[in-house]
Each structure stands twice: as structure tokens, then as C-alpha cells.
Amino acid sequence: MAKKRDIVSYDPFEAMYSLREDFDRMFKDFFTGFTSPALSSRLFPVMDIRETDEQFIIDAEVPGMDKKDVKLSIKKDELIIEGEKKEEKKEEGESFIRVERSYGSFRRSVRLPVEVDQSKVKAKYENGVLQIFIPKSEKAKPKEIEIKVE
């Protein structure tokens, strides 16, 4: 019995995007010096990206941040999340024994594989998780074509 195979469109630039991400990661790792990778990557929100026929759903972790300190934008096929996690003020008479949390500005961008409808993007922030809903454009949604038998 023959196996069912899906027809998948080929994107000749997909390998280039992956290569670019690998180079970006390599340079980021190189220039972070001798700090722990776990500590140096905390400013960049970790995220899960899901896809349905209708939209992309992105869950980005930004714990301890106020929603006014996070900015979202979409330029062509790229989602950009940026912001700043501000350092807590040290009270007079206290000193830190250990500091493991990171503070400062961050910027993370993700290339989306298809055209999206920028006018309908929605986001919500709850319990340290930023959830972004990015609808696909009508051109990017899968279309069924009826086959007529003659």
C-alpha cells in the first residue's frame, strides 16, 4: 500500500533564514564573553510559536515586567518584541548576597514564514506571559480547489 504524502511548497530562502539565525546565535554567543549562557540569555524572552490554518500564536515569557515596558511591532514578515526590564532600587542599609536576575534592554525578532494581516494582530499579557495572535493574510491561507470530473 502506498504512503500518503502531502504536497509542501518549497521556499528557497528557508535555508538562508536558518543560516542567518545560526550566524546570529554564533556571534551573540561569542560576544557574551565568559558569562553563563543561562544568565546572558535571560533578557531575550523565550517563546513558543504555534501555527493553525488561520493564524500564528506566540507565547513569550516576560516575567516581572509591566506591559508598558514591552513593545511589539511587525515589519513585513518579521515580529519584533523589545523592551526593558528595570533594575529594582536598592534600599539604604541592605546589600545583595547574590544577584542572578538580569536587567536591561532586549530585542527579539522572529521571521514569519507567510504574509500576515498586520491590522488584526492582537496581544494579551497575563501572569508573565505575553500571548500574541497574528492572523495570516487571505493570500497565505490554504485554499481548497474543487476537482470536476468530466
Features:
single chain, about 150 residues, alpha+beta, Immunoglobulin-like, 2 domains, four-stranded antiparallel beta sheet, three-stranded antiparallel beta sheet, 2 helices, 7 strands, elongated
**What would the average pLDDT be, to the nearest integer?**
80
Runs in which pLDDT lies below 50 for 5 or more consecutive residues are: 33-43
Largest sheet: 4 strands, antiparallel
Strand order of the largest sheet: 1-2-7-6
N-to-C span: 28 Å
Structural class: alpha+beta
CATH class term of the largest domain: Mainly Beta
Tell me the CATH topology of the largest domain: Immunoglobulin-like
Overall helicity: 10-25%
Structural shape? elongated
CATH architecture of the largest domain: Sandwich
Number of beta-strand segments? 7
* CA radius of gyration: 21 Å
What percentage of amino acids are in beta strands? 25-35%
Could you characterize the architecture of this molecule?
The protein starts with 13 loop residues before the first helix and ends in a 15-residue tail after the last strand. The protein folds into 2 domains: 12-38, no CATH class; 42-86 and 102-141, Sandwich (Immunoglobulin-like). The protein is α+β, with helices and mostly antiparallel strands. The strands form 2 sheets. A 4-stranded antiparallel sheet has the order 1-2-7-6, with no helix packed on it. Strands 3-4-5 form a 3-stranded antiparallel sheet, with no helix packed on it. Residues 33-43 have low confidence and may be disordered. It has 2 helices and 7 strands. It is 15% helix and 31% strand.
